[in-house]
């Protein structure tokens, strides 16, 4: 198989980090960058995901895998990959966008690509961590994802735009396989994090893991909650949602609210698993922040596609791995700490 990989959005925060980690670990890979404004014509290709005709240039470079790290609202890249038999890895989808993309895949009766969605929290690794921590003979009753987000961390534009567009829109969590409609930053719950973060007020948060863990992994009860490193900011956002302020704001104003990005900070999340054998917690800390962990996850998914014999078809990222492969890959990276309790 040719090791020609194209990262569309490869100049963005996460895309450029994928490029760095991928080349450091796999110097034999030929990695190209798709961008609207190429400068180095040896390693960069002019591509605009909103202009399907711009994708035709991909064919002349004999690309075997496209990594999508920029929003593609109309799924033009997904369709192009399927129609031309090119493998595809997407780490960008929000829950609504993921559902639309799955419908696109379903509309093709047959295809010769590996289509992979790594569109959960931190590159879609949460379901893989759940599977790594519980015996295959065990039955999982519930999973709760608790996210600590630092406003000092680096953040890409797509994350800010997602929050701005969806903060006032209801989404669902699952309880005993029943959908419960909720909104971001409501339903406060106290939680004590590890890694010295202590007690935090946690609020509703939407990630594709809700859908994947319930609909794909058949876990009946799934929820996600998050908190900011600033307790004041967290309380203000909860208050704004409670009193309907987000709903009255323009999209432009909401983007300003969520559009800040710092210089970098630690990223932490914890996964609470309740199974027939008892309760377990998986604690994850990225010293270099969420962009580094998301990019590393994308690189691990890429290496699985390039190095393993995986049949054509549609996959969620965690389905690329056997047993504890994903967990071991994450643990082997110097800035990532994972503990199981």
From TrEMBL:
SUPFAM superfamilies: NAD(P)-binding Rossmann-fold domains
Top-level taxon: Bacteria
Domain Saccharopine dehydrogenase NADP binding, chain residue ranges per copy: 5-94
Name recorded for this polypeptide: Saccharopine dehydrogenase
């Amino acid at each position: 198989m040719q090791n020609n990989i194209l990262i569309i959005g490869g100049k963005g925060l996460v895309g450029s980090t994928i490029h760095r980690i991928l080349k450091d670990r796999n110097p034999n890979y030929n990695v190209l960058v798709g961008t609207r404004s190429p400068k180095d014509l040896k390693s960069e290709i002019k591509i605009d995901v909103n202009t399907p005709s711009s994708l035709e240039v991909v064919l002349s470079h004999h690309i075997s895998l496209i990594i999508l790290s920029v929003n593609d609202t109309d799924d033009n890249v997904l369709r192009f990959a399927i129609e031309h038999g090119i493998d595809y890895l997407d780490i960008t989808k929000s829950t609504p966008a993921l559902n639309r993309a799955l419908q696109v895949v379903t509309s093709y009766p047959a295809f010769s690509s590996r289509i992979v969605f790594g569109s959960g929290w931190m590159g879609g690794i949460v379901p893989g961590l759940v599977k790594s921590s519980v015996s295959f003979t065990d039955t999982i009753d519930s999973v709760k994802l608790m996210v600590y987000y630092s406003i000092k961390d680096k953040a890409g534009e797509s994350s800010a735009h997602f929050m701005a567009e969806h903060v006032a829109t209801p989404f669902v969590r699952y309880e005993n396989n029943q959908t419960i409609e909720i909104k971001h930053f409501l339903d406060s719950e106290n939680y004590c994090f590890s890694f010295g973060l202590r007690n935090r007020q946690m609020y509703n948060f939407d990630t594709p893991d809700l859908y994947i863990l319930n609909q794909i992994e058949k876990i009946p009860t799934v929820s996600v909650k998050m908190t900011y490193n600033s307790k004041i900011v967290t309380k203000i956002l909860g208050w704004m949602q409670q009193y309907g302020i987000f709903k009255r704001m323009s999209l432009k104003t909401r983007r300003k609210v969520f559009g800040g990005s710092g210089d970098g900070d630690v990223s932490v999340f914890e996964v609470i698993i309740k199974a027939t054998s008892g309760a377990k917690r998986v604690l994850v800390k990225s010293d270099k922040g969420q962009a580094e962990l998301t990019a590393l996850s994308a690189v691990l998914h890429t290496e699985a596609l390039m190095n393993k014999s995986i049949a054509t078809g549609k996959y969620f990222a965690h389905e690329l791995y056997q047993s504890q492969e994903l967990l071991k890959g994450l643990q082997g990276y110097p800035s990532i700490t994972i503990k199981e309790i």
